[in-house]
Amino acid sequence: MxxxxxxxxxIRDVSVTYPNGVHALKGVSLRIxxxxxxxxxxxxAGKSTLMRILAxxxxxxxxxxxxxxxxxxxxxxxxxxxxxxxxxxxxxxxQLSAEKLLDHFAILKGIIARGPRKEMVDALLRQVNLxxxxxxxxxxxxxxxxxxxxxxxxxxxxxxxxxxxxxxxxLDPAERVRFLNLLSEVGDSSVVVLSTHIVEDVSExxxxxxxxxRGEILLEAEPLRAIDELRGRIWRRVIDRGAxxxxxxxHAVISSKRLAGRAVVHVHGEASPGAGFDPVEPDLEDVxxxxxxxxxxxxxxxxxxx
Amino acid sequence: MTSILRAQWLAIVGFEMAxxxxxxxxxxxxVVFLLLLLGQTNGQVIDAQDxxxxxxxxxxxxxxxxxxxxxxxxxxxAIAGDAATRDVQTRLExxxxxxxxxxAVYLGGRFVGAFLTIALVLLAIPAALLVAxxxxxxxxxxxxxxxxxxxxxxxxxxxxxxxxxxxxxxxxSLAFLMRHPIGSYLGAGLVFSAVLxxxxxxxxxxxQWELAALLNPAGETSLRLMANTWSPTDLNTRLVGLGGGLxxxxxxxxxxxxxxxxxTHARFRQGKVATTARWGLRRAEWGARITPDAPLAxxxxxxxxxxxxxxxxxxxxxxxxxxxxREVAGGWLWVAVPIAAFFLxxxxxxxxxxxxxxxxxxxxxxxxxxxxxxxxxxxxxVFIILFAGELxxxxxxxxMHVLVDAAPVPIWPRFAGKVLGLWIAIVAFQVLRVLTGIVxxxxxxxxxxxxxxxxxxxxxxxxxxxxxxxxxxISVHVLVHQKHVGHLVVLTxxLGGGLxxxLIGVEHxxxxxxxxxGWRFSPISGLDPHLGPFLWFRAYWTAWALLIxxxxxxxxxxxxxxxxxxxxTLARQRLTGxxxxxxxxxxxxxxxxxxxxxxxxxxxxxxxxSAAAPRRQAEYERRYARFGGATQPQLTAxxxxxxxxxDGHGATVRGVHHLVNRSSHAIDxxxxxxxxxxxxSAIAFGRSARATTIDDDLGHRVYVLADPLQPGDSLRxxxxxxxxxxxxxxxxxxxxxxxNGSFIETHNWIPTVGYQRWRELSSATDRRTHALPARPATPxxxxxxxxxxxxxxxxxxxxxxVGTAAGQTAVAPGELRRTWxxxxxxxxxxxxxxxxxxxxxxxxxxxxxxxxRTAAGVTIEVVHHPAHGANVDRMMHGIExxxxxxxxxFGPYPQSELRFVEYPGDGGSGLHAANxxxxxxxxxxxxxxxxxxxxxxxxxxxxxHEVAHQFQPLPARVEGSALLSESFAxxxxxxxxxxxxxxxxxxxxxxxxxxxxLDPRARADVPLLRASESFVAYRKGPFAMHALRQYVGQAExxxxxxxxxxxxxxxxxxxxxxxxxxxxFRAVTPDSLQYLLGDLFERNTFWELQAHGARSxxxxxxxxxxxxxxxxxxxxxxxxxxxxxxxxxxxxxxGAYGVAKGGAATGNTLxxxxxxxxxxxxxxxxxxxxxxxxxxxxxRRLLVDVTPSDNVVEVSGGR
Lengths: 306, 1199
Description:
- The structure holds 2 protein chains of 2 kinds.
- Chain A is α/β, with parallel strands linked by helices.
- Chain A has helices spanning about 45-55, 75-80, 100-110, 115-125, 145-155, 175-185, 200-205, 225-230, 245-250, 285-290, 300-305, and strands spanning about 10-15, 25-30, 35-40, 60-65, 70, 85, 160-165, 190-195, 210-215, 215-220, 235-240, 255-260, 260-270, 280.
- Chain A folds into 2 domains: about 10-220, P-loop containing nucleotide triphosphate hydrolases (Rossmann fold); about 225-305, no CATH class.
- In chain A, the strands form 3 sheets. Chain A has a 6-stranded mixed β-sheet with strand order 6-7-8-3-9-10, with helices on both faces. A 4-stranded antiparallel β-sheet of chain A has the order 2-1-4-5. A 4-stranded antiparallel β-sheet of chain A has the order 12-13-11-14.
- In chain A, helix 3 (about 100-110) packs across helix 4 (about 115-125) and helix 4 runs antiparallel to helix 5.
- The model of chain A has no long low-confidence stretch (mean pLDDT about 85).
- In chain B, strands 1, 2, 4, 5, 8, 11, 13 and 14 form an 8-stranded mixed β-sheet that branches. In chain B, strands 27-26-29-30-22-23-28 form a 7-stranded mixed β-sheet, with no helix packed on it. A 5-stranded mixed β-sheet of chain B has the order 16-17-18-20-19, with helices on one face.
- Chain B is an alpha+beta fold.
- The longest helix of chain B has about 40 residues, at about 310-350.
- Among the domains of chain B are: about 5-140 and about 145-280, no CATH class; about 310-605, no CATH class; about 965-1080; about 1085-1195, Sandwich (Immunoglobulin-like), CATH 2.60.40.10.
- In chain B, about 45% of the residues are buried.
């Protein structure tokens, strides 16, 4: 039995080109150990394509994917036996109750025996907090409730690989927290790949992460270590909004935010960029923006010398 | 409308049209359409040509357009459903509703956009009707009239466009209110069923033609009425217009269509259109009601061990099946409830034949409903097509496929689950059919349910086709992967493919599934001989369905949509192991079963298309008609030795014909017509003869005698034929020798002397197609050669020895002289005392025989299936009474026995009279005249009719011969009915006969003397003789018939014609009534008699004086429909009736006498003894009057 027996997901040189010419993935390679793994990137970075490949719903043009010794692309049926997948977008039969549809999925996932199946369905409904509404039609569910139902489906059958695509989009803050907690529990015993464009999702939960943009992996790191590496290199200054263009010309600005009518800029630099800049304790957001702007990670060389 | 509103509205309309016009399926429909139209016009041309009408006559154009419009209901449903529900499906609705567009503009724009697109597509109809003649070779014979744009405009604006509006409005509204495009398909189904029910049921069965014309949503009943009542000249020239109830019909339905739209708008504006959709649609999320959110529970998730073995797959299949049933359940009810209601309400009526109840045996119920209204069969298949699509698209439509596709389930349990779901729905339909059947039987007091028969047929044989069709439709949807296109492909392949195949002459059941022979059940022969071939062809197409299904499984899309190439690659990857073996297995099955079937249809049997028979007929005529005039010896006696082998379906007949040269010259050449159905082996003659032509393909042989046959000399001809069916053929199985219930019509089997003119093609179109010279379908009344043609009119003495299986009784004409058993077989020896005609038959079955000897010494028998004894008493009574009476009226019965023999007859209930024998189809045994609400005995009447044929003169094969046979038989039967059952019973019988007059019919026709069409022969003719009987007396009319029979008693040419009959009638009719003979028989005369009012006045001397105000007119109508008024000074019956007492329908007859009535309005006075209540002109409807209902009026009281 696979539960408790932790393995690693290896992605090698995976490329996908869509018929319209878009290179969704360009030779992506990742090593994903057990635990929560964050895949961070902007919209259109190729996250969902990668997630669909992991979920066996789309074959790549080239490359390989292995879960432990299992060739995911060659034997998708076997992967599906240990797979939990929560897609970014999905629907449900609106006229069925949560309990009935979850039971249906349990059978599809191979949980055949009536007793254990009921036990599992009940436990999951409690776990995702849909127990009280289990008899209600899914058509009446809110976005968050539906999302939690999706999690219950994904968790059926104790998956060793959980692929979760943008799960927090559309959730209110409280729902999001609950949801992430739920995921982290599962992460104790399996590989959980979480794709998101929200940095907090990763910083709060993931022991490892990757940043992806335009089909390429820009950074593969442990969040804490990456933050450590940036320590002392991020500087902050509050400026008038009009001055942003000047600052951007002169400094390696990685991000800017509005704050009470003025702008707060974060600048990457080995040493203090000058007057008015204060050193700040970096966070994962700084890692992300440094990576995206080429100050850190895979793009660094190309930009620094370019 | 403000300019902004107008702009918005136009934008919505334009947008809608742009979307619809861009859809591939929209234009695929146009192509399908054109193909169908080409096929349809072909049939139309042939029908029209036979009637001498232009195929593009305005009414035919209108009719074609309406029919095409009905097929186009599918496009309408697709487009209207899409327009009504696209925003729900794409979740755009909230955005649309939040925009500042008014609800009316939004809804109206969508509808108008859809409607205009449909109108655009429907332009294909006039286009195809204009183009089809150019492409159709069958039109070479000048069957097309001048192109009339006005006629096209009438068809388009009066029928096609309003029909499209009605159907689109109903479909759009239903889809919009149900929030699902399936609503528009249901709407289309309703419209279609209504059209068929109106014409077939409300009109055809109930006779409520006016109601049907109003209620028919396509206006098709009105067209039918016009087609039936217009003369050929009318048809060629008249425009459709708004007659025939069409005006009210159009207003009524346009009102319903508009009403549906207004209702939809009202519901929409009031916000009563659910945001929740039924039929598997997502609920819109903005309406969430539930928001309880407690802190996360701390629950440990139990560990389970998932299973992936065979057990799990079965469970998963069951789970998918259950899920599929949720999808189909709603639709099932939509179809099942109306069907069940229809059967329960109308089922008993549907078991009536000619209005007479039949015993509701299980076979009858199955048969009666099997042939039942096509809308119900169509409903089942439309259900299958629609839900095959819905099931395959179920997860995708709910956008849940991503979850399911990532689940560890292989494709096949999901595929199988969906198929099973649909199959269960189909089985449920059939179970419903059985249950309604049983309920109907019970309601009619019949408790002998043959459950086994229900299981074998309705829940057995009848399940195969829909289940295989469901498998095919689901597979197509998997392969096509576009819902609308999938539906279209299924339809096109099934219907279009069948029609197209028919058009290009491909009709082998191994190539065209629709050409598969079906099954028939007879209580006598069971499913024999249909069952074997039925199962083989089904097995073959089942194998195909399986093959298509396993191939479709290879292409099943999992996860993201992908290109065709990617799917092909995937399919190739999947083609391994078990999958490859199933494909190979299914393909092998196709080859194997197909091979066996092909071996049977094309190698054991010679395959012939339906075009082969007319081709052979034409070739036979071309090659051998020149021998038609050759003097030939005449057949005078035949000895038969028949060996029937019911179990092997085979038979051998050996025979000797005794031929005599009755001519005045020597005959050196004998032409022999040999059978087209069975094999004729060597023919030998009693003297030296040499075969110069052996052409068994066309069925003609020529023998030259070494010594010519001198006048008066005779010649023996020895022959043998074999019927040894091998395997099965592509056509419906031969119904001759069966395990039980064999029936051999000998003229199809045994060799005959001379050229056989009856084998020639008779329809004008067929003759033109095969380049044969034109000739009337029936030879003209004045064709003297035809009047003398002796073929088929020989008088022969017959001696037959028939052997058959143990336990069975064989029947042949004549007296049964001896029976014996040899080698475990039963033998019967029959000999005729008096000569008989050559059209006789031989039977074998397990029979029960009722026998009686009449006072006149005739042995009468009813030879029947042991279980079919219900009507035997009535039949014996009818036979005996008829024989007695006819012998007095028309002269002695020539034979020493009269036998009625039952045979399976493929579910029919008809009878056929030959000399000394009448054979009847098993359905005749199931009549239940005791329960006839009209209180008359149809069985007795029909028996009397058939016995009368024994007393008819031998008619020549020319126009008007039906008057001497069928009209005579009914005329004669009227006398027996009146004598045995009384005058009231006769009146009820006449009312039954008059029911057929209710069907709308053109007045244009030939006079009775040239009658050959069945309505004229079986109804109009008998009534003319009935009238004559009332005017000149039965004894006189009978005397005319008796003399005609005596004059033609020898059986020698010339044979009797209607002109001879006329001569006898003239002889017995007084001078004062000679005009009546002309009106009844020589001209197609109609009287237009009407009573405007009647008054009565008490007289001082006692009694009442009645003043009757009548109007009269008489016209003759020719075949083109031209009316000529004939001045009238006729004797017409005038009647008056008293108060009805004791539940009688009418009161005492106070007055009934002939009065002179002239053309125009006039007053007739007479005196009666009691106070009259009703009075009228020709109250007994003796004269031909299209509206006899206005003949009689209430008498207004004594002022």
